[in-house]
Amino acid sequence: MHNLRQEQFLPITLDKAWAFFSSPKNLNEVTPEDMVFEITSDMPDLMYEGMMITYRIKPMLNISMNWCTEITHINNHHFFIDEQRKGPYNIWHHEHHFKEVDGGILMTDILYYDIGKSFLGWIAGHLLVHKKVKQIFEFRYKKLEQIFSKEK
Fold first, then answer.
1. How many structural domains does the chain have?
2. pLDDT tens by residue, the chain, 152 residues
């Protein structure tokens, strides 16, 4: 199992952060363009526990795949968790935490993922997957700085 932890300060209110991140419609905005991210399910304005989100992505080598995640837990204004139900990973568990701090919020992403135990999975992980996961979160960090730097 692999994990990634990323913290980011955003100079916005907790209400504004929650409004942005709890809307599935904003997923595309914080996903790298080269992943060709397309939500295929109907999206409500706000997420809810048990909500299934289906989308089509091209995560690597321009190969299109379907992915489905479920919003499994929500603690309003504190955290939510999404988990893959169908897709390329054996395990994808992504926690999104929000904490009010002086001058804004501290957002913490905690991701646990596993691509499998096979030799092919091990090779793919070391050559492509781990690097791609890191790039996705680096893109997201920079994009959120751009979006919310206007708030200062």
1. 1
2. 889 999 999 999 999 999 999 998 898 899 888 888 889 999 888 899 999 999 998 876 777 889 999 999 999 999 999 999 998 888 999 999 999 999 999 999 999 998 876 545 555 555 567 888 899 999 999 999 999 986 55
Place of tokens 């991140």: 21
User: What is the domain extent for residue 116?
Assistant: 2-149
CATH of the domain at 11: 3.30.530.20
Are 43 and 53 in contact, with CB atoms under 8 Å apart?
Answer: yes
Q: How far is CA 90 from CA 66, 77, 106, 119, 142, in A?
A: 14, 29, 29, 14, 28
Identify the helix (H) or strand (E) that includes residue 57.
Answer: strand 52-57
Rounded Cα distance, 81 and 93, in Å: 7
What tokens appear for 95 in the block?
Answer: 């926690």
